[in-house]
Amino acid sequence: MSLQQHRAEFPYLAGKAYFNYGGQGTMPRSAIAALQDANIRFQELGPFSSAANSWIVQEGNLTRAAIAKELGTTADTITLTEDVSVGCNIALWGIDWQAGDHILLTDCEHQGIVAAVQELQRRFDLEVSVCPLLETLNSGDPSAIVEQFLQPNTRLFVVSHILWNTGQVLPLQEMVEICHARSVQVLVDAAQSVGVLPLNLTELNADFYAFTGHKWWCGAAGVGALYVRPEARETLHPTFIGWRSVITDAKGTPECFQSDGRAFEIATSAIPLYPALREAIAFHQPFAETRYSMICDRSAYLWQRLKALPNVKCLKTSAPASGLVSFQLENGKHPQLVQYLEARNFFLRVILNPNCVRACVHYFTTEEEIDALAHAIEEFL
Fold first, then answer.
1. Model-wide pTM > 0.90
2. What is the bridge-based pairing of β-strands 17-18 and 346-347?
3. CATH 3.40.640.10 fits 33-283, yes or no
């Protein structure tokens, strides 16, 4: 199948130029069909029946296995969640915090994760500090800055693999090694990296890696996952607990938690989302080997087109190494630009810190779309 034929399998890209994959991807036809078929199948089984329960267990097993295979790990390390924030919260609240423990954040983390850390700080009397990685976008050594900001009482470093605001790809493996040498665990917000970067989570060795299926994987919203390194799972405690978390005796009394990633799953979920996610993952396989380089090629092309426009400044001074291209207008009219573009079927978003507009390109984004976007921005200016 050619790339053009492949792209045509996204029925709802027709008539629009979509640059919001970092927020939510559009679904391919096969994933939409899988979602519809699974909803029908669930009703046919009788939603609360032994047959339906067996189907639910099977779907969970198949989905953990598919995610694990895609990310270079094993199914026992995968916890199915709803989204990135749920995955991050499982890790954040599962650590046995003591008063005076220290959490290190970067200055580029998503507000939802920052708010969770602030609440942990309030409840457990923790110390929290922020290391300045935004300033390393175009020069500097982010790993050295992280090492500088670690403290003797640091328990956890919270970081994004790809920064959601600027698109910077961080040297995560190096950061993990630095932290582990100081007995510091690492929680990764992987919202922008899964589906973009070639990943092997076993080799990466981060303790917690939280991601979602509805962004760059182009699955349905409402299903994601958390990778927990086996060594980290030994000391991570479930916070929200339900029937999926536990093993019961013959009388239904809880005896212990599941010994794998299921220990952090809770109860009822929208199971039809699972086969839809697997179909979305499988859909990208024909371009698995070249996907990342294709994303970078398209990102570089967009960066070049924007850089050539008057009164437009790209945050990166060189072509981005991800699908995120953030830029600013000299007049600062970023919300107005996004509204203007959306009225013309170009979809981008505003980022507040740093104040900019973010455009996302996928491997199937076309040069024609990018040219049309650049022309529309020029018309607005």
1. yes
2. parallel
3. yes
